Amino acid sequence: MNQLTPNYMFYVTGFLIFLTLLVILIHILYNIYKRKDIIQIINSDPKYKEDFKSINQELSVHIGALKDANARISGLYNQVDKTSFELSKKVEELKRIDEIGKAISSSLDLNEVLETILWAGIEWTKATHGSVMLLDQVSNTLSIKYSIGISSETVKDFKLNIGEGIAGWVIKYKKLAVVNLERDDPRFVKFKKNSTEDNSLLAVPLIYRDNAIGVLNLSSRDPDKKFGEEDISFILTIASHAAIAIENANLYEGMQHNYFEIIKSLALTLEAKDHYSHG
Known about the structure:
α2 packs across α3, α3 runs parallel beside α7 (about 230-275) and α4 packs antiparallel against α7 (about 230-275). The chain has seven helices and six strands. The protein starts with 5 loop residues before the first helix and ends with a helix. By secondary structure, it is of the alpha+beta class. The longest helix has about 60 residues, at about 45-105. It is elongated and about 130 Å long.
């Protein structure tokens, strides 16, 4: 037999309380009106008038208690509904994070990792566009490695120094930035002179072993969009997964590059040796 859920038991308990109070009320009313001649008796005998007045006061108290109980039950219903919704939302969030984590941890292709991360962030937060910027350890500059909703011409050769712009500030201080009406923020730097201004921005650092390696940027041109706590919580979580996946992909690409360089060097050495032996 299936066990009853806590929500179901709560509703049943509330209903039983309401039903009990209703029975008490009906019982009192029945006792008052069960005799047809009660009105005549009350009018003819002062003693009954006092009794009726007392019963009426008692009835008023019970009605008041019934109203209070009903109000408390309604409040508890609303609280349970709200808590249930919040739990469902959190379960959905954790499920999505798990899916993203599995997807990016199973890939060693950097572009695939960046695409998965950025699409997930845009879909969850309802952003209109975004980008992933990675830090060049040699030049100490940020450049866009993957973007959605931004033209390639707009982001071409776009770079930021550490501390420059909102993304530069984020990677310098290893702190997220939530900016509404970002053009009013002194840290804001446009891609191009005539580029479209965004209404809101969420920028989160990608941190691996306490080192900031990049920035995940999500933006919206919707005037009604404001990035809230749920957006921030989700993006911070996937950013931590993303940093590990990005480092793994970079390490793999580095190993591949070194491998091909070794093969190339060996091929050149063998070619030179063969040329010498036949020379």
